[in-house]
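User: I'm putting together notes for a lab meeting next week and I want to include a structural view of one of the chains we've been expressing. I don't have a solved structure, so I'd like a prediction I can at least talk through. The sequence is below, exactly as it appears in our construct file.
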Amino acid sequence: MSSFLSKAVRAAPPILFLVIGALAYTQLSKEPPEEKRPPATPRVIKTTVADIPLQDYQITVMTRGIVRPHNEVTLTADVAGKVAEINPLFEDGAFFSKNDILIELDDADYKTSVLAAEAQVARASATFAQEQARAKQARLNWDDLGYNEEPNDLVLRLPQLRETEASVKAAMAQLEQAQRDLDRTRVRAPFNGRVRLRTVGIGQSVGNGTSLGTIFATDYAEVRLPISAHELDQLNLPEESTDPPVQVDLSNAVDETSPHTWTAEIVRTEGTLDEQSLELFAIARITDPFGRESDKRPLRIGQPVIGAVKGHVLEQVYVIPRRAVRQVDRIYLVMKEEMTLDRQIIEPIWKDLDHFIVHSPGLFENAFLATSSMRYTPDEARVEILSQEKVAEESEQTKETPKKTET
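Assistant: Thanks for the context. Below is the predicted structure for the 407-residue chain, given as structure tokens.
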């Protein structure tokens, strides 16, 4: 009996632990009762909107070019000599008028040549006059002798007369050449223009063909404007000299905030496409580019400019602000009746820096265009339209809210 009790006492603790473990497992394995959560409230998207009506849109093609002279030449000497005088108008950047004397060469030798040629003309003229008198006397003598037949040329001294007459003409030609050479010692401006670069100085010896400097005309300048193949379809550019010019408005590309503009006209196009860009270049002409005959602001040769060329008018299209277009070609509509969001893919027929032009009748007939930047944009989401004043107010409140500091 005592042995049985002893065994029972030793077995009691393990059995007790097993019972307690079983009870604990039973309690822990029970799933807690589900808490009843209130139904989720649909998230409302806030955005500003724009009403996009159908309208006609004037296409404007934007392009860039460099102002260049239409006529730029290297001024050269026609005769040899030493530079004796340089006109102040022949300085880098100076303006000059047609026939202004820009450079004078030492003309002493050329004046001597003119005097020698004049003397030769005088001698030849005197000899010719003597031969004329002799020929006249020969005719009188022949008539006095009473011959019935006509005398030959030798009797009348006609060969001698022709020779002396030719000598007079040769002497006069030499005189004209000497006078031209003398006049060429004064280098004159071939047109109204401006000096780009002078390359000679006083005392310098120059030869026939020596470069004196580079000059360009100022009556008008040109701009070479590239036009892409897509843009060409929207413009009517002149191809023939009789075609009407196309107006282009130019602005300063160096300082795009500058208010100054210039009016030019596209007067012709180049005959071939650029091999690399496959663009066609249109040539725009700017009259009085330096403001010499008007009070407009002058342009500079080599100045980059932005050209705006008006093209065709697209009729009954939607003009969508570029800032409202997402992921290249996606927009969001706010349906007017349901006040829900609708995503649409657009196919623009034209686009520029500020707008996408879409020809999709009925696209905005019952919808606004969402213009705010949105991260959460599921289709058919509820939308709250914000006014611009409210957007500005919320933005100010966000700025004024102090940030929490960590402790």
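A couple of points you could mention at the meeting. The chain has five helices and 22 strands. The CA atoms of residues 14 and 20 lie 10 Å apart.

User: Perfect, that's what I needed.
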